[in-house]
Amino acid sequence: MFNERLQQNSLRSKVDLQRALLDLVSPLEPYFVRSKVGLKFDSGGTVYDEKTQDIEALLRPLWGIIPFLVGGGDYSNLDLYLNQIKNGTHPTSESYWGIIHDRDQRMVEMAVLGLGLCLAKDQLWDVLTYQEQQNLYAWLDQINKFEMPKNNWLFFRILVNLGFKNCDLPINEARMDVDLASINSYYVGNGWYQDGYPNQIDYYVPFAIHFYSLIYVKVMENEDSAYVPLFKERAVKFAQSFRSFFDRNGAAVPFGRSMT
After folding, report:
1. Alpha-carbon gap, residue 165 to 178, rounded angstroms
2. Does the N terminus or the C terminus of the chain have fewer Cβ atoms within 10 A?
3. Which of 221, 237, 150 is nearest to 185 (CA)?
4. Rounded CA separation 26/24 (Å)
5. Strand 187-189 to strand 192-193: parallel, antiparallel, or no bridges (unpaired)?
6. pTM for the structure as a whole
7. DSSP conformational letter for 152
8. Distances in whole angstroms, Cα of residue 132 to Cα of each of 86, 120, 256
């Protein structure tokens, strides 16, 4: 049923997009009871462990839900996610998401919680008790203590620290400065970046680097940061060539990573 509604959705207005978001996330809700740590759909999965798979399944929908909330949407089942987040970041809970390590997939999933602290503080942070806030902060702050791939992943740590800044929490300024400098070093001109490694240029440039950099612009636009005008200018330049990747109906050139 939800696929039929999506197929019939013209996706032309904000209301259309809000409706599409709800049609995407509402079928997830019955699966909250199948996992102590996140969401579980089936026995299949990716290369990382089952706990991480469940955490990923839980947190990925927030990339849609958070902008939906910020844009004035009303999502009545937000508590389903909040309760899992509270349990997952409680260090003595059997649902605890655990201690991370270098290049840990859980770093990827931390980014959307950073986004939430940046854009939806009143709905994702202010509603927590003091202890719950400290638990969430401590779990997320692990991202400042471990190494990650030198590519768009660095923005995950930047987003977490931006979230800390917005909530008046201690941030790792040195880490953020180094990460931003690394991202800046990937720039190759005309709005395009390489994703950390020579000649690694694909849809991770718009879907990751430019997307995250514009979140940075939004959060830091009233701060004294040289990266705000820089990221804006590069996004405008990038759009001039990226629009040629799509035909009149919206079909895109298929290439690069994450094609499946």
Report:
1. 17
2. C
3. 150
4. 6
5. antiparallel
6. 0.94
7. T
8. 6, 16, 40
